[in-house]
Each structure stands twice: as structure tokens, then as C-alpha cells.
Automatic annotation (TrEMBL):
Source taxon at top rank: Bacteria
Database matches in InterPro entries: Glyas_Bleomycin-R_OHBP_Dase (IPR029068)
Higher taxonomy: Bacteria, Pseudomonadati, Pseudomonadota, Alphaproteobacteria, Acetobacterales
The protein's name: VOC domain-containing protein
Amino acid sequence: MRFNHVANRLNPEHFETVVALFTARLGFAVLRRTERAIWLRQPGANIDLQFSRSDAPGRDVDKLRSQVSFLSETPREALEALAAWLAGKGVEARVGAYSPREFYLDAPAAFVDFVIEAMRPELADYPLDE
């Protein structure tokens, strides 16, 4: 098997706003769209991101452990800019920290089961044993 995509859930009320965040602010391209879901890819990446509409009444209380993760030289600032963009669209968002080099953005009304993480690039410098 070969890894293809990761799927996360969005509140239908904020679905299009979050898709716009990923396309307009993070440069993702739309690959495929159905009534319930969308598949996106960031140029240069080889993994896709799927968002599905979810009418789940509750939110995952442990969603800080489930991230769509990005690398950034300025992770807090990058997430704060996304939070400000979401706020401008009427979606409350907040930035928190896992550590001084790892941060997360949560938009509780929109993100059902994940947060957006940004971390310093050196944290993803893993040695590969092939």
C-alpha cells in the first residue's frame, strides 16, 4: 500500500471558509470535490488533505493531539495571521503552544477533530533509515 491522503472533519457551517483558508492563504489546490468532501494538495507536497462535512453535535475533546501540521521559521506568527484571517471571516480562532517551537491554531466552531499546527523546521529533521 502507498500513503494517499489524510481526512479530517469540518462543521458544514464553516466548510467553505476553511477551504478558502487553505486555498487562498496556504496555496492549496482543489483536486476533487463532492457534496460532502473536498481533496486538496499544497504544491510540492505528495500527500493530499481531505475535508469532510460533519454534523457531529460534539467536538473531539482531545483534538489537540490530531493536527494538520506545517513547518515555518515563524510558526506562532504564521498561525496568528491565519487566526486573524479567520476572525475577519467571522470564525473565532485562537493560537496556543505545545512548546516554544510548536504552536497550534484552533477554530472550535469549524474544526471538529483537529487543529492546525506549525512548528520550527528543525523539529521535522528526522534521520531516515532506509
